[in-house]
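Researcher: Structure prediction, please.
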Amino acid sequence: MQFDSISYLVLLSLTFLAFYLGPKKMRVAVLLGASLVFYGSWNAPFLILVLYSAVLDYLVAKKIQTAHNHRAKKHWLVMSLVSNLSVLVIFKYANFIRESLHLALPDINAFSERWPIILPIGISFYTFQTMSYSVDVYRKRIHPESSFVDFMLYVCFFPQLIAGPIERAGHLMPQIKRVRDYQFRNEHFHAGLLLLAWGLFKKAALSDNLARIVDVSYGNPSAHGGLDLLIATYAFAFQIFFDFSAYSDMARGAASLFGIQLVRNFKLPYLAQNPSDFWRRWHISLSEWIRDYLYFPLGGSKGGVPRTLVNLLLAMGLAGLWHGAAWTYVVWGLFHGCLLVAYRILAPLFTPLSKFISPWLATGLKVFFMFHFVCLGWILFRATSLHDAIFIMEQISTWISSGLPTNQSGAGLTLMLLVITFGLMFWEEKERAFHRLSSTPLGYATIIATAILLTAILAPEVSSPFIYFQF
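Model: Predicted structure follows.
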């Protein structure tokens, strides 16, 4: 059940009516029922895994709370982490481990054939969400939830179940508690509709059309030259941004209809001026999860520069592995780890130069270089293998070193679209243009109508699945 499908619109509408027309005491049950139907529409048997994860951490949190000493509390926390990660490893990483072992030990027949394991959709997201709950109870940041029904809704709330944002219990659970007494508010309803329409436009009109450009070149890199691959790389940078931010907007919009405010997951990431800034803007809920539950526990920046750099590389390498069971994702994560390390080391050396450059030029140069570093990483992320990624980089490098011939019309169009897109992003960043335009009834209606009209005109006949549904 895709967010941009008629079936999802029907489910959302029926849930909305049942939520407001039915008894208030049944609201949590209505949302939970809709969530189970939503997830079950993908693969009903995998609801068992969602239930297992919820029951496990619901009970573990209670055991942590009642344990008489720190050692016992830690024992229960370890049980939660090991149990959750074991499920994740079995269903998401088993074949990746098998393939890696087969490369190292090709003579062992057990590793030669792919194991028949299906990846449960959204498993990375809800597993991280339940683990963070147990950790937060262990750290005494929250108290264990008494109602299993409420906790189950926290685990599988359908707007954000498949691809986030990854919510913390301290933020989402109090809102779930309040839905029984929630009074319909026009501002939440209007904000929800705007986010839904805007997200649908970004997915159907922008991301799905860019996907056709990307799939042709990245599907068979050897048949394309450096310029085609460069254009496809730019296209993928915006495809994945529009795709994932569209999902996040639609998730926030759907939740807002029920009075629940999910965390913001994107803040114009391609305007980032350095690697740290990028991860404060891109997939914010994951980057903060990695920071709070992995980087800080490893020691963060407390162990001196060498230890800090090792922690950054390890955290980002695991963040890359979280995205997918392939070496391309691991290398992509390590690449971003190296960017963070390089920034920590080199940034102080460039600080004196800022005195001789105008602030506007300095900002523009930082954004330009950071965007292209991110695009370099996207090659690793999108390529089907490390071999293809290296080939694409070589082809682009060869084309650039040959003098940048522009004998293809696509290059000029791509450059123009990049300039326009970045101009609009800077306008939004500095002036909050989208907020200001939508703050009046006429502006609000215009944006909604324009988004729906352009979606109807530009959306391809066959939509592409959301990219992050595979993680």
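Model: The radius of gyration is 23 Å.
Researcher: Thanks, that helps.
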